[in-house]
Design brief:
about 0% helix; 3-stranded antiparallel beta sheet; about 55% strand; 5-stranded antiparallel beta sheet; mainly beta; about 80 residues
Length: about 80
């Protein structure tokens, strides 16, 4: 089971944090279609081997998708 939390920053950007406490890897998709003004999304991975490393994120029709490693933390920032 993945755990997630979402925030609207004072600067108008959105952040979604997804925690994977399991030993399985996941492809994570976040629907940002209802978030106004979003034109770009970045994703960052923190795990045993990475410390806030920017990772590839696909952005299509308001949905951002990125790879989440086992026992990792993935942060999407939409602005």
């Amino acid at each position: 089971m993945l755990h997630s939390s979402a925030y609207l920053n004072e600067d108008g950007s959105y952040v979604v944090v997804v925690l994977n406490p399991t030993y399985e890897e996941h492809s994570v998709s976040v629907d940002l279609g209802q978030c106004s003004g979003v034109k770009k999304v970045k994703a960052y991975l923190t795990d045993q081997d990475n410390d806030i490393k920017e990772v590839k994120v696909s952005w299509r029709r308001g949905v951002a998708t990125a790879h989440l490693t086992s026992r990792g933390l993935l942060t999407f920032k939409a602005f």
